[in-house]
Amino acid sequence: MWFSDKVEPDHVLQGNELLIHETVVHENPVPFDGELKIIGETDEVVAVDKPSGMPVHQGGGHRVNCLVEILKKQDPSRFTFAVHTLHRLDRLTSGIVILGKNPDVARAFSAAFQKHDQEIQKCYLARVKGNFEGSDVVVEGYMRCVDFRVGKFILVDSADGAASKDESKDDASATTPSENTDSVEEKKEQVEDKWSQTRFEKVWYDEKNDETIVKCYPKTGRTHQIRVHLESISHPIANDSCYGGEYKADHPFAFPLAPHANDVPPKE
C-alpha cells in the first residue's frame, strides 16, 4: 500500500490521497504455442479448435491462460462482442468449442442441450486400452465422487450402491442400445450420486499397441463421465493415469491425455 508520504497504521485517508494495493499473481501455464485455429464462423457463433491442456474459461488457477481470453488477445478487433460459452470441454480434452455471439444464441443452445432428444449431439473420440468388444455399447450408472480433494469418481449401479472402486466395476452396466428402454429423464437425480449414460462405437483397433479408437456419445454431462465409464468396462483411456491408463511420453499419440471432442452436429 502506497501513500505520497510515510504514514502511521492508524492514519485516516484524506481527500485526494491514493491507496494502492499491489500483488504478484503467478498463473499456471498452458501447453500451447501459436494461434488458436478458428474453423468456422457465422453471424451467431464461432467454432474454435481447443488444444489439450487449455481451460475454456476463467477459473481455478487460470484467468488469462484460457481459451476465451487468449482469443480476445489474439484478435481483439474480431472479438469485440461478449463471448458466451455454449458448452464446455475439460481442460485436458481437445476438440471443437462453439462460442456464442449473443445471449439469445446461448439460451437456445442451452435449451437444446437440455432436451436430450438428439437435436444437438456431442461426439468424442477416445483412444482406449485393449480390443474394444462390441460395435455399439451403452454404459450407464450413478457417478459417485470418492475423493473430493482430487475429484475422483467411480460408477455404481444405484444411488445406494457400493462405493469401492472394485465393486463399482461389477455395478457398471454395459448393454446394447435396444436393451435400454428408460430415458434419462426417468432416472431420479440424487444429491450426491448422479445418473449418467454414454454410448460407445468401435472405430478401429490398433493391434500393434493393443489400443482401440472409439466414438463416445454422452447422454448426460457428468464430471469425468467418459473417463469413468470406459474404466468401468476395463477399457480405460490409454494414457489417463487417473482412471486406469498409463501415460507414456514416447507414445506417438501421447497427447492429448483425454478424449477429443470430434463434433457437435445438428439434427438433420
From TrEMBL:
An example Gene Ontology biological process: enzyme-directed rRNA pseudouridine synthesis
Regions of compositional bias (Basic and acidic residues) in chain numbering: 163-172
Region (Disordered): 163-192
InterPro entries: PsdUridine_synth_cat_dom_sf, PsdUridine_synth_RluA-like_CS, PsdUridine_synth_RsuA/RluA, RluA_PseudoU_synthase
Pfam families xrefs: PseudoU_synth_2
TM annotation in the entry: none
GO molecular function term, any single one: RNA binding
Domain spans labelled Pseudouridine synthase RsuA/RluA-like: 45-232
UniProt cross-references to SUPFAM superfamilies, sorted A to Z: Pseudouridine synthase (SSF55120)
Cross-referenced PROSITE patterns: PSI_RLU
PANTHER family reported for this sequence: MITOCHONDRIAL RNA PSEUDOURIDINE SYNTHASE, PSEUDOURIDYLATE SYNTHASE RPUSD2
Name of protein: Pseudouridine synthase RsuA/RluA-like domain-containing protein
Organism: Perkinsus olseni (Perkinsus atlanticus)
